[in-house]
Specification:
Blueprint: H1 12-17, E1 27-31, E2 36-38, H2 39-55, E3 63-67, H3 72-84, E4 87-90, H4 97-107, E5 111-114, H5 122-127, E6 132-135, H6 143-148, E7 165-170, E8 180-184, H7 185-198, E9 206-209, H8 216-228, E10 232-235, H9 241-247, E11 253-256, H10 258-264, E12 280-283, H11 290-300, E13 305-310, E14 314-318, E15 332-333, E16 338-342, E17 355-360, H12 372-377, E18 385-393, E19 399-404, E20 409-411, E21 414-416, H13 418-425, E22 431-441, E23 445-454, H14 462-470, E24 481-485, H15 498-504
Parallel strand pairs: 1-10, 3-4, 3-5, 5-6, 9-10, 9-11, 11-12, 12-13, 23-24
Antiparallel strand pairs: 1-2, 7-8, 13-14, 14-15, 16-17, 17-18, 18-19, 20-21, 22-23
Helix pairs in contact: 2-3, 7-8
């Protein structure tokens, strides 16, 4: 299928809706309950939502802060915000009242859309009056939906400059307060168009959507690719491995986080026959263990396509659709995206040497909301965004992510990259998953602690793990303690929250 052309209006809504016929009877969304919403209905639906938001006072550039469960109606709010030229600000549904209070104060939205159980957040409802509060529940009901039924649809689509902000997504805030990454209409549309082409979307593709809608992966990557292709989405409220396996014969493309694939492998019914209609499995948002990649290939015959992205830039690199997909790597830069690996003072490093990944391109965000100084700190003097990720680049340009800079452990003056040790740990019999962290040490400054998740049987003890690692790693890379846990703390996108582990085990070696 040809790559959709951009219309004169840079509004992302115009670009997405310009990719399908306005009278199309194809469904955009099919739910697990059998509900279908057709492409030909989208413009009328979002016009009603836009009218409701406008009546509540939302104008161009105003923020619409949203913390609701996944539903088709939540998607209509996003699309309606785009067509108004407003700024959509999604929040993780797990955020607490105190965290939401911070976002309300920082974003200063015109409307705060939340769940009807807002009464469980008394400090918000009692103290914050800067935004009009509306509700939306998981079943598609609430005060905003009620309002859409009585307004006159607003047919106008705001004409915006490509650099106007379309969305603000807050970073995880593992170091200090969360920062709002401002993503423009051009940032989002350029990335969507590049992915649509890179992943070979074609007529008849059906996307399995089991991701949340408050993150780049589920809201932008999945939804935008589907709409640009006029594809149907099998829209599941959440990921359930057994349910997903039942639905696989109905779809051609699945996007997921690594946890999805490890859990699918636990379902006995997963086999080549179940995956017979699938064209492509894609993984991102966190590193995919090579062991999972190989196990999935052996079970299904499919090589998962791993890619790399971040809140501030959408997708940056991808393993090839046609060509060798190497487990443990994230492939090559997308078209028009420049990537480099630098060392001390921004100087280039040798091929395959670890350094800081920096990037520049039309996908890179416009800066952090109301934080110009922080924005300036995150860019090099020649305009590359400093990702905070440590990486290597092969001679042919293929990128491998080593880990986050903040996860780098400096022990006795030596740099240690936890991912290298985790890869060795995960190869040991009896270990299903692992995370290696640095904790304070009176002599070395930092020393290594390994936190492992064992299998049901034959979990190796600390001495056995350390002995095994000494056979394959230099002594300074071998953890001094091995701690077994039932599971590793992860965020909604499957990333291990090492900050939690570091805090919990900081006194382990003292």
């Amino acid at each position: 299928m040809a790559t959709p052309a951009q219309p004169l209006n840079s509004n992302l809504y115009s670009i997405l809706t310009g990719s399908f016929l306005p009278d199309s009877f194809d469904p955009l969304i099919r739910t697990a309950t059998g509900q279908e919403i057709l492409y030909r209905e989208i413009d009328v639906i979002t016009a009603s939502y836009a009218a409701a938001l406008a009546e509540l006072g939302v104008d161009r550039g105003d923020r619409v802060l949203v913390q609701v469960e996944k539903s088709p109606e939540a998607l209509w709010v996003y699309l309606a915000s785009l067509r108004l030229g407003a700024i959509y600000c999604p929040l993780n549904t797990a955020y607490t009242a105190s965290e939401v209070s911070y976002f309300l104060d920082d974003a200063e939205p015109a409307v705060f859309l939340t769940r009807p159980d807002i009464g469980k957040m008394p400090q918000i409802s009692a103290t914050y009056t800067g935004a009009i509060m509306m509700t939306l529940d998981a079943e598609g009901g609430g005060s905003l939906v009620d309002m859409t039924e009585s307004v006159t649809p607003l047919e106008e689509i705001a004409s915006v400059d490509g650099n106007d902000i379309a969305a603000i997504l807050y970073t995880s805030g593992t170091t200090g307060q969360p920062k709002g990454a401002m993503l423009s209409h051009n940032n989002l549309s350029s990335n969507a168009l590049a992915l649509h082409k890179a992943w070979g979307f074609q007529k008849g593709d059906v996307l399995l959507h089991a991701l949340p809608l408050f993150h780049v992966h589920g809201l932008f990557v999945a939804v935008h690719c589907a709409m640009l292709n006029a594809s149907s989405m099998l829209f599941l409220p959440r990921f359930d491995a057994e349910e997903v396996v039942r639905y696989l014969p109905q779809v051609t493309v699945m996007m997921g986080v690594p946890t999805f694939y490890s859990r699918l492998l636990e379902v006995a019914e997963l086999d080549p026959k179940t995956c017979n209609s699938i064209r492509l499995f894609i993984s991102g948002s966190a590193p995919l263990l090579p062991e999972i990649w190989y196990a999935f290939r052996d079970r299904t015959g499919f090589e998962i396509l791993e890619r790399y992205g971040m809140t501030e830039a959408g997708m940056i690199t991808s393993n090839p659709l046609s060509g060798e997909r190497l487990p443990g790597t994230v492939g090559y830069p997308l078209p028009k995206v420049e990537v480099r690996v630098t060392g001390v003072q921004g100087k280039s490093v040798d091929i395959s040497e670890v350094g800081m990944l920096e990037l520049r391109g039309p996908n890179v965000f416009q800066g952090y909301w109301r934080k110009p100084e922080k924005t300036k700190e995150e860019f090099s003097t020649d305009g590359f965004f400093v990702s905070g990720d440590l990486a290597t680049m092969a001679a042919d340009g293929r990128v491998s992510i080593v880990g986050r800079q903040k996860d780098l452990v400096i022990s006795g003056g030596l740099n240690i990259y936890p991912k290298e040790i985790e890869e060795q740990l995960n190869r040991l019999e009896g270990i299903m998953d692992s995370a290696v962290i640095g904790v304070p040490h009176p002599d070395l400054g930092e020393a290594l602690v390994a936190v492992i998740v064992g299998s049901m049987n034959n979990v190796p003890n600390q001495n056995a793990v350390i002995a095994s690692l000494k056979n394959v790693l230099a002594g300074f890379k071998v953890p001094r303690r091995v701690i077994q846990v039932d599971e590793l703390p992860r965020n909604a996108m499957g990333k291990v929250q090492k900050n939690i582990l570091r805090e919990h085990y900081r006194d382990t070696l003292n």
